[in-house]
Amino acid sequence: MSRFSNIVTNIRCRLADVRNRSFMPDHELARLLGAEGVLYTLMITLAHNNNNLYASRLGAGASDLGLIASLPPVVGMLSLIPFAIIADRLHNKKPMVMLSALALGLMYILVGMAAFLDSSRVPVLILLLVLANIPMSLYNSSWQAFFSDAVKPCDRNLVYSHRTRMNTAVGIAVPLLAGAILTAASGSGKILVHQIYYWLAFPLAVGQVILLHRASGGSSAETNHIRLSDVKESARLLFHSRKFLGFLAVAFIAYCGWELDWSLYFLAQFRYLHMNETQMSLISVFSAAAQFVTIGLWSRLVQKKGVRFVFIIGVAGFAFCCISLVLSLFLAPPFQLPFYYLFQSIGGSAYSAFLISLFQCLLEAIPHKNRALSIAIYNTIILFSNIVMPYLGVYMYNSMGESLKAMIYSMAIIAAVRIFAVLAAGLRWFRLRKVEEEFV
Fold first, then answer.
1. What's the mean pLDDT in 53-61?
2. What is the pLDDT of residues 380-423, one digit of tens each?
3. How far from each other are the two terminal CA atoms of the chain, in whole angstroms?
4. Rounded to an integer, what distance in angstroms lies between the CA atom of residue 150 and that of residue 221?
5. CATH number, domain containing residue 311
6. Residue partners of 399: CB distance under 8 A and separation at least 6
7. CA-based nearest residue to 77, from 301, 338, 369, 380
8. How is residue 401 annotated by DSSP?
9. How far from 5 is each of 1, 11, 77, 184, CA to CA, in Å?
10. Class of residue 152 by CB neighbours under 10 A (exposed 0-12, middle 13-18, buried 19+)
11. What is the per-residue pLDDT for 221?
12. Which of 150, 226, 302, 413 might form a disulfide with 217, Cβ 3.0–4.6 angstroms?
């Protein structure tokens, strides 16, 4: 009996150790930024990720969904560099992160109120989602600059991996609950549920501000009084860096392949796999669970093989998901969803590898001076692809006839782009495999 008790005790100790390492690391900044990331992920899961469903219920068509995916990055792209100039003048980027989070919460309150309009509600909704991308882009860019200043290079993998792990943990439970509530609602009640999700964004943003206020660090060693005339010179130096250009080329191809199906994925699930809100949420839950289980593996692999190698795995996950969706569209209804759930979850597990490695690859490729501006230039280029690619994906689908056959052909083309991105990432890793990764 005592032997059995010892075994049980050992198992409990091991589980407690895993729990502590997963959710309560010794690093205080990791805990605070992890909790802040949880609140931001809740906001994105409840509000932003349901934009297509909300718009569809307000009367948006396929072309409107393409605009919702393509237009918002326009204003984000135009605002990034001016805000980066301001950020580089700040001794600490944290206030800009907090203000952008609050502004995003306020914008989502307005997005929820768009349902009260009549004939003009779809155009107004599109306009509000366009404007909401200003604080969202500013948050992402300023948070990255704050992270770079606040976290020591030797701690970046630990802190960022913990934040990603916490975000995926939220993704396991919240999408299923949110989808179940939407499925249970009927008629106009579904729109009301969407509105409540959007209105919850502001209190979540307030929680982010409280946590960020408690986070120490983030002060730059020096502040740069950048003028508009300096942007051209900084861009020139950045684009003369072979390390940055190599990373940018691979990241741009990967993003293009990813973004092409942003609207098509929803249409494929909704129209051709005939999935309801709960079923759509289930795939998010399964993928998040797979990411949570494997994120420790990717983090250890970063330590062993480097971020460039793990980036290949992340990009390969996108290609695998696209191929599995194409194959599921060929299957008969009894087999479609089980096949889709299984292989989407397997491919989705690599998304955490993409998240962990992408940002660290960026920090490794850009100079330390004017880092906020360099990050803004990079994000501006990526946002340009955000503008073009989602609408291009919808255009391909529409031009082929808006049918099941058109969806299969469109997704096959996107899969080819993603496979090319995998090859490009592999080539970059192979060429730089003997070059030590440097983080400053």
1. 88
2. 888 888 888 888 898 899 999 989 999 999 999 999 999 999 99
3. 55
4. 11
5. 1.20.1250.20
6. none
7. 380
8. T
9. 6, 10, 60, 45
10. exposed
11. 55
12. 150
Instruction: Show the tokens assigned to 399.
Output: 């031009």
Domain count, the chain: 1
Q: What share of the chain is helix, strand, coil (3-state, %, to 5)?
A: 85, 0, 15
In a domain, 436, yes or no: no
Q: Which domain holds residue 179?
A: 25-216+228-431
Residue 17 lies in a domain: no
- Give the residues across from 92 on adjacent strands: 219
403-426: buried (b, 16+ CB within 10 Å) or exposed (e) per residue?
eeebbbbbbebbbebbbbbbebbb
Give, for 5, the enclosing helix (H) or strand (E): helix 2-23
b/e for 288-318, b at 16 or more Cβ within 10 A?
bbbbbebbeebbebbeeebbbbbbbbbbbbb
Look at the chain and count its residues: 440
Between residues 207 and 281, which one has the greater pLDDT?
207
Q: What are 71's two structure tokens?
A: 């237009």
CA distance 403 to 272: 9
Does some domain include residue 402? yes
Distances from the Cα of 21 to the Cα of 16, 18, 26, 165, 302, angstroms? 9, 5, 8, 11, 17
DSSP 3-state of 119? coil
Q: How far apart are CA 87 and CA 79, in angstroms?
A: 12
- Does residue 16 sit within a domain? no
